[in-house]
Amino acid sequence: MELFRIGFLTVSLVDLVDIALVSFIFYRLYLVMRGTIATQIFIGLMLIFAFSFIAQAINLKAMGWLLHTLTDIWVIAFIVLFQPEIRRLLSIVARNKIVRMFLNLDVDESIEEIASAAVELSKKKQGALIIIVRGTGLRTFIETGISLQARVSRSLLLSIFNPKSPLHDGAVIIKDRTIEAARCTLPLSATTRSGDTVLGMRHRSALGISEQADTVAVIVSEETGTISIAEDGILTRKLTPHELRTQLRERLVLSLERSWKNLSRAMSAEP
User: Fold this and answer.
1) Together in a domain, 54 and 185
2) What residues contact residue 220 under an 8 Å CB cut-off, 6+ apart?
3) Which of 33, 60, 94 is a domain's end point?
4) Does one domain contain both 238 and 138?
5) Of 94, 126, 146, which residue constitutes the final position of a domain?
6) Residue 198 and residue 100 in contact, taking contact as beta carbons nearer than 8 Å
7) Among the listed residues 217, 219, 215, the one whose alpha carbon sits nearest the alpha carbon of residue 197
8) Which of 20, 30, 43, 158 has the greatest count of CB atoms below 10 A from its CB?
């Protein structure tokens, strides 16, 4: 249904909805990339699109052909140039509560094993970095370590992070009830401080992976023995054993249960 005309353009209700959706997507992309070098490239691409549209509108054939040629390869350029931002955007989508409702998490039995191991390592001041996968897998990072595919247990985690073990450096990655790999290399966060405390490599690695993937990271400091948790790029430090167990259950089990309950209430409330 035609609403109005702008020169030679006919605008309908569908066009307005289409424009609104595209504008929202580009706005969200800008928010994700804001503060990065990719922002300038993104603005440049938008200008090319705008000039291409204007050139076609006023029938500048040579200019239109040149700009059209550039826009034909923009998809490939977009993927290559914005790979870190695209990964970050997909990670944000994966963290959405609606998406998490459809994830099959089976970590309830692993929480006690992980917490017990972290508390024991804390007492001995033996450093540890345990990554619990909550969304999609971390195959890229798993391949940097030693594949184990072993059932999660307190004794195995203590053995891995024993300073004399060849696997104690790097991170352990856990999915459901399985330790998928040890001695994994993770990306470092740009964050270097938490309050007045300078963060070490383990804490920055925990923050880095939590910024890029839907994970919960448990960190034991080798210097102080303090236990911390990193999630969504936020570090929660100096947890007691009880707080650690509560936080793990809250982040890995209860959040999923609440999402399903809220969905059930919403469906039952419908007429």
Assistant:
1) no
2) 118, 121, 122, 126, 127, 128, 129, 161, 226, 227
3) 94
4) yes
5) 94
6) no
7) 219
8) 158
Half-sphere exposure of 126 toward its Cβ, with a 13 Å CA cutoff? Answer: 20
Q: Which two tokens stand for residue 234?
A: 């936020």
Question: Which residue stretches of 34-132 are H helix?
Answer: 38-57, 61-72, 74-81, 83-94, 97-100, 108-124
Range of the domain at 52: 2-94
- For 222, residues 6+ apart whose C-beta sits below 8 A from its C-beta are 125, 126, 127, 200, 202
Tokens of 239: 């947890």
Shared domain check, 78 and 15: yes
